[in-house]
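Researcher: Here's a chain I'd like modeled. Treat it as a single chain, no partners, no ligands.
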Amino acid sequence: MSDVSPLPAKSAPADRESVGPFDEAEANAVRPYIDLGGIKILPREGLNLRLEVEEQTKRIVAVGLDYADSTLQVQPFAAPRTSGLWEETRDQIRQQVKQQGGRVEAREGPLGPELLAEVPVMAGAEGAAKRLARFVGVDGPRWFLRGVIGGAATSDVEAAAAVEDLFRSIVVVRGGSPMPPRDLIPLRMPQSPATA
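Model: Modeled as a single isolated chain. Structure tokens:
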């Protein structure tokens, strides 16, 4: 291709710096965050946290949050300083869901562009049950935070608002070390047990 395509713009709510998801430099230092390395989570009543671990490497690859009869899986990635990853990531998710026999609808949500997907629970099974998932993403300074929302927050307005608020309260800790774009920012076990 001879045409140089413009870099994808960053995709984030206009008020991201004041309402979140936050960069470490924007976060309120006195709040009692649960420190998971690449992200910090603000504890709240009724929130359960699960770490998703890759079996071979024992590396934590995602943080699962159960809240408001919903699930929110989050992953922080390194990103370029000037361009965003959410646009390209949405295309990849769209292709993956279609390959699994699911349906995807792009829409504008409270966090910006998002995907609502109907994903078969058992791939390849005829008449398999499908589950709804909302894919959300926000490009921050040098990072990209991806979320997958399931459960009540895919259809219930109040649950959706609660989970969106939870997503927006997350602090991404990119760190100063150089990382290739799209690399998962390392996650770790919390230092001390969280007190709710």
